[in-house]
Amino acid sequence: MLLGVVKELMNRFKSRYARYIAAALSTALIAGAVLLYRNLPAKLQPETKPHSLTKKEVKPQREKTIPEKLEELDRTYPIGEPPEGSARTYWGAGKGKNLIVVQLESFQNFVLNASVQGHQVAPVMKQLSKESLYFPYIFQQIGVGNTSDAEFAASTSIYPIGFSAMSTTYADRKLPSLAKLLGRNHYVTATFHVNDVTFWNRDQMYPALGFHAYYDKPYFSKVKFSRFGASDEELFRVGIRKMKTMRKLDKRFYAQFVTVTSHSPYKIKEADKRLHLPDDFADGRLGDYLTAVNYTDYALGTFIDKLKRSGLWDTSVVVIYGDHFGLHKRYHRPATVSKALGIPYHKHISTYNVPLIIHLPGQREGKRIERTGGQIDILPTVANVMGIDLKQEKFTAFGHDLANVGHNIVGSRYYMPAGSFFNDDIVFVAGKNGFEDGKAYDLRTMLPVQNVERYRPDFEFIQKRMGLSDRYVKRLPARPGVKLESQSKQEPAGAKVPPKAETGPGAKPGEKQAGNDGPAGLRAKPSSNGKAGKDGSKERIKQPEADHPAR
């Protein structure tokens, strides 16, 4: 177009300056076109690449904390917690009262409904379940730490990591715990166990959990009742005496008891047996287990009687739960157990199902709460009863208050394949390929579930939740002056090594006998503090750490 204009001008102006004039006009027209292009309306302008920010211009975003990630994750699962500020069931029912927690060794839930020739195996626990809050669908969540892992999970609401005992791996950390929560409320906290406190590194775990005192082997009778020392009756006898002393000092207390008599190999002297099996009871292993848990149930009954006579029963919240299975699925076929006792028994559901009972002060009528849970749910449930607001305390719990959720799910590992879980409907047993070849069983009918695809979100949710728990415990700050050192495997003094078939290197990791209390693994350097008590034993009292509220 421009060339046509130039030719027209040259035809009109036939002079020697025509070409100069045409060149000038061409330049002017081109300049005008450039200016017009640069000032096009926004809608007509071509797309341009966005400006790339330099490192100095980019502001780093704060990484979300694990509690924030946990809260965000929980919003993706229909847990159904009551809105903040609304009324909570059993809130503060035990506020200001003492707290007594009893962990029962190798105590499965099925024994509450078992009997032999009309004689109940666990009559005390059965009756107590009718007079208390009873949770029949609680499942173990232990790893290689077995009994000590159960203590840890119930005390912290943190998942055991599985192939390493929590007491020997994280005893050097500042652990959030139920004992510390109660310590802030001016409770005296103590724990009782007839074995030597260095076993499972408890001499370091108990201070890490915030207990003010522990009472171990030197405090109890030297009469050896089992491979671990004194009997459960002796455990409770000493405990009653110490709790009475704390009451005389006008102190509210939290006392934890860890029983041992029903520990494998479940051998009770004939003179001490309370349950006598018929001569034709064919299964010797099962018979030994039943007589052992029956004795522990009897000892618990003597404890409750003394609590009532002393007046402590009506001024205390009493929590009782099982730590892990006693009948190994390798040696006890479900059909054999069912036939011997006349009850349904499932290799996953019944084996890993443990009882949880919470008795409230002055409670006369019981309530059965069929919410599925695990040992990590004990702390939040008890905290609600004791009137402790975990959110207000800024306490990170990986369990839930079982009395105040509409749905729940708990993960399981080590004794079950990674990715296995229990929810309100099923137990899901992960396969070699995780969810894809996993199997599910109905918790109530114990029958296989065909349509498992609908539980894929549960599988993905619990994997993320347990992963957050693992990251959380690993990031907890170290306790000053505590150093863990590696030592070889060790059994307690005088104990017989269990048969190789149960615990030897040939056993599969997921099938090691929970009842043997596992290897000692890592151990902290033993504490040398202590003074002589009236009975000649060393007073195993730990001074609170510098940051402990009781100091």
From TrEMBL:
The chain crosses the membrane at residues 17-37. It is found in: Cell membrane. Coiled coil: none annotated. GO terms for cellular component: plasma membrane. Pathway: Cell wall biogenesis; lipoteichoic acid biosynthesis. Residues 532-551 have a biased composition (Basic and acidic residues). Its main location: membrane. This is Sulfatase N-terminal domain-containing protein. The lineage of its organism: Bacteria, Bacillati, Bacillota, Bacilli, Bacillales.
